[in-house]
Amino acid sequence: MRGIRGSLCSRCGNPAATYLRYAKLNLCREHFLDYILDRVETAVRRYRMIKPGSRILAAVSGGKDSSTMLLTLSKLLAKLEFDLAALHIDLGIDGYSSEARSIAEEVCRIAGIRCMVVRLEDMIGLNIPKLARRVRRPPCSVCGAVKRYLLNLAGVEAGVDAVALGHHLDDLAVYILKNFLLQNLEDIRKLGPKTEGYDGFVVGRIRPLYEVYERDTALYVNLAGIPYQSVECPLHSIGMEGSIRAFLDSMEENSPGFKIAFLRSIARSIDKYPQPRDEVNRCSICGMPSQGDVCSFCRMTERVLGKPMGLDVRMKVRDIISRIVSVKSG
Questions:
Q1: Which of the four, 85, 117, 120, 178, has the lowest number of CB atoms within 10 Å?
Q2: Which of these, 317, 320, 301, 303, lies nearest to 125 by C-alpha position?
Q3: DSSP3 helix / strand / coil % (the chain, rounded to 5)
Q4: pTM of the model
Q5: In whole angstroms, what is the distance from residue 223 CA to residue 17 CA?
Q6: In angstroms, how far apart are the furthest CA atoms of the chain?
Q7: What is the pLDDT of residue 155?
Q8: What's the rounded Cα separation, in Å, for the pair 91 and 253?
C-alpha cells in the first residue's frame, strides 16, 4: 500500500498497515479498525442519527460498504443503547444475487444480528432482470425503485425508527454533485446524513458511513477478515457518474479531505435546499408513499402482472418479520 513501507503506526509504533492522507496518520491493523469505528460513532453522534432506545434496520447487500456499516453498528450497540436488525433483498440476478445473499447472511451471523431476507421472486413472481424487460426500463432504474419500496415497507412493518444505508462518502459526493449540476435540488435534501420519517408510512433513513471513504470500507473488511462480495452487479451502469467521480477524485488527490469538507458543508446547509413540491400521499392499495392515488410499485406491477402487488407484498413481508422474534439489543 502506498505510503506505508517501513512506516510505524502513529498511535502505537507498530508496523503500519495503511496511511490515511486526509488524516495524516499511519495506522496498524488494530488502530485502523478502531479509527473507522470512531469515525462511524462520531458521525452518528454529530448528526444525531440514533437516539437511545432507537430501533434500526440495516440494509445489508453483501458488499463491503454495508458489511462495514453493519459490523461497526453492531459494535456500538451497548454504547449507544439501540436495537438493530438487518434486511437483505434478494433481487434474483443470475450469477450475483445468490452469492450476495449467502455473504450477507454470513456477515449478519458474524455480527450477531438477525437477518431478514426478502426475495423479490417470492414477492411478485419475477426477478429484477425479468421485471425490467417487462416494463421496458433500465434495470438500475427498476432495481432502485423496487429496493426503495421494499426497504421502506420493511421498515414500516418492523416498526423501526430508521433504515440504515451503507452509502459511503465517495458515492454520496457523486450523487449530490450530479443533482446540483442537473438542478434536482429537491433530491439533494434526501442525501444528507439522515432524513426523518413521518406519519407512520415513511421510515427515516440514516447513513452511518457519511464520513467514511470507499477505500476505507474495502480496507476495513479485509483487515477485519469479513467476507464481502467483490464483483459488481452485472446490470450496473456508470453513466455521467463516472465523470463526476473522476473530477471529485482529482480534487481529493490535490486536497486530501476535500470530500469530507464537501459533505460536511452539505450537511450544514441541507435545510436550505427546497422541500419536495409534490404532496406525499398514502397509496390507496398498499398504504405506502405515493405522489398520486396509487404508488409507482403498484402501478408497475399492475402493468406487468395485471394486478397491483403492493398489498400482497406487504402481507408477505409482515409474515417474514413476524418470524424474527427479536432484534439484538445493547
A1: 117
A2: 301
A3: 50, 15, 35
A4: 0.93
A5: 9
A6: 66
A7: 96
A8: 36
The three cell numbers of residue 109 are 451471523
The tens digit of pLDDT for each residue in 141-186 reads 899 999 999 999 999 999 999 999 999 999 999 999 999 999 999 9
* Lookup result for grid cell 445473499: 101
pLDDT in tens, 65-78: 999 999 999 999 99
Backbone angles phi and psi of 61, in degrees to 5: -95, -25
Q: Kindly give the residue spans of alpha helices, DSSP state H, lying in the chain.
A: 29-46, 64-75, 77-80, 97-111, 120-124, 128-135, 139-158, 169-181, 185-188, 214-224, 241-254, 258-269, 296-305, 310-322
Beta-strand relationship, 18-20 and 25-27: antiparallel
Q: Which domains does the chain have, with CATH numbers?
A: 48-231+239-329 (3.40.50.620)
**d(C-alpha 286, C-alpha 289), whole Å:** 9
Amino acid type, 133: R
